[in-house]
UniProtKB/TrEMBL annotation:
GO molecular function, one term: hormone activity
Species this chain originates from: Phyllotreta striolata (Striped flea beetle)
Keyword Nucleus belongs to the record: no
This protein's name: Insulin-like domain-containing protein
A GO CC term attached to the entry: extracellular region
Keywords for this protein: Cleavage on pair of basic residues, Disulfide bond, Secreted, Signal
Classification lineage: Eukaryota, Metazoa, Ecdysozoa, Arthropoda, Hexapoda
Start and end residues of each Insulin-like domain: 44-96
Subcellular location: Secreted
Transmembrane stretches, start-end: none
Amino acid sequence: MFNVLQRRKMYYCSLVFLLSYICCVVLAFDSAALTEVDKTARKRAFCGRRLTTILGHFCLEFPDRDNDTPSRSKRQIVKECCTNKCSLNYLLENYCQTVNTEALEAFKREDDSQELFSHKQITDNISTTPGTSEKTGKKLRKRRNCSCRKRLKLKKLQLEIKFWRSLVNGNFAKQEAQIGEIEFQQHPFYLTF
């Protein structure tokens, strides 16, 4: 068995280990509290639907578009905030004329687990739209990788030939033109400066 010296040695080793573990935990919490950054100052990648929902939620008005700038410059926001990460503060300062302060304060009060524009919430919204479910994606991948590509190409070619023949012969259903009004909404992707 163990003698008295070995027991004391084990006791002191376990005590030192316990104290060092407690110190590490305390230091980790202190450093997390010291390095906590304002939620709006953290840099993130804002792309696609996430970018439009954030701008639509926090911006009340967008800056007027100059007619002098070329239309290619509308991709500037995507390059700045999707390719390179940018903070919510930067996004609101540069791309919003007036900011919805109530929504911004509510966003700051939320905790990180219930973040307003989390990736999970956005992917849930996307998956509810028809044609974007996982099953559809798997079916498309299987179809692309199957051995019956020639049959699919042949069927597609036959449908195209049938369509062009119906155009030449005039056997297609003619639809009447429908004229309607289009409402123009503010889209953040069309911003230019």
